Amino acid sequence: MFSSKHLQVGALANARVLLRSRRPCFLPHTASLSGSSIKSLRDAFRDPSSPFHITPGQAGPESPDSPPSLPDPTPSQSSHPTAVGLLAENARTKLISMGYDEESFWEQSIVWGHHDSFRHVNNAHYLRFIESGRMVWLMALGKVLGGEERVKAMLAGQGVSLILKSANVNFRRPVTFPDTLLIGHKPLISSSRTQFTLNAVLYSYGQQAVVADSDSVLVWYDYDSLKKCDPGDDTWRVMKAALRDGQGES
Hints:
19% of the residues are buried. This protein is an alpha+beta fold. It is built from five helices and six strands; from the N terminus they run αααβαβββββα.
């Protein structure tokens, strides 16, 4: 009778014999290239119709399925400072000619995250863009009314400042990344002593056109007494003067 120990020793010995007798196993030579394969690859690099084609002076695609690169309608300032400067200057000149206050101008860079599934800037973002421009306009107004201290008070909701009553947006053209929008504001004054309409326009550097406009109703509000108010003749005089200046440019 053989014990389990004898059986294990015998099995190990047989295994060694089998390993010595087996021929080495080789992997297929998938990584190696023959001379003809190298030539075919070089030919593919030179063939404009091939996904592997590399134009002289350019880097090749990340993969055969990589999409072709598209021209940048708004080149970065680091690579094309003159072109970007010209687009920006054209936009500023256009908005000034339309009567918008230059002190209110706000540049809004479009980022990829502004897109939605419809492949353009989501409509909800425009209210944020306009809000940023509106605050720049408010700061410019506050500076005229009482300097930096008045600006700080108006932004902090102290004393007499403004509160948003309503806003609408007219979407005229879809906006896509990359682009920059120039946003300008101007007041439209009525007979009311407690509120007025603030008009905004959004101008695309890439499209060189107005892509949206908006009307917001702002109410003069006393944050100390928590009620709407008349800001006084001096404030209305400043706003009417700014409005006349804007109309004189158009």
